[in-house]
User: What shape does this take?
Amino acid sequence: MTDDTPSRTAATAHAEGMVVRREVLSDAHVDRAQARTTAFTEPFQDLITRYAWGEIWTRPGLDRRMRSAITLTALIARDHWDEFAMHVRAARRNGLTVEEIQEVLLQAAVYLGVPSANHAFAVAEQELARFEQPEGETPIESDTDTDHHDAHDSGRARGPEAGDR
Assistant: This one.
């Protein structure tokens, strides 16, 4: 079996990933993440930019709206609430309506459980309100802020994903 997919360089994947990352998460979010990058976290920032954003989010098989719906569901399933909050805003930026996000959460209630969906509704409602505010008015908390504990945490475990995506 041969692969007819043209070979992409790491630099190409990184460049394309950075474009998508900025479009999905916002320039302000990515600028904050880059400003906080250290020598220790730089390899992780490079990995997520190349792999998640440059290889997966750039694939032609699904549009960004669908990728956002899937991402929201996956984050609920794993109780990754800081990432979920960030991706609620990203889903709106990708064109999902408030009603579509609501439907994703209702679907999650059936397949992932009411307690997870209940928490997802609380986080989403807060983030949707924040999304409607002009950028810069309310700081968007990063999931790398390990001292930050708010409604997203609510005693739930934080996984090793803590890193500003």
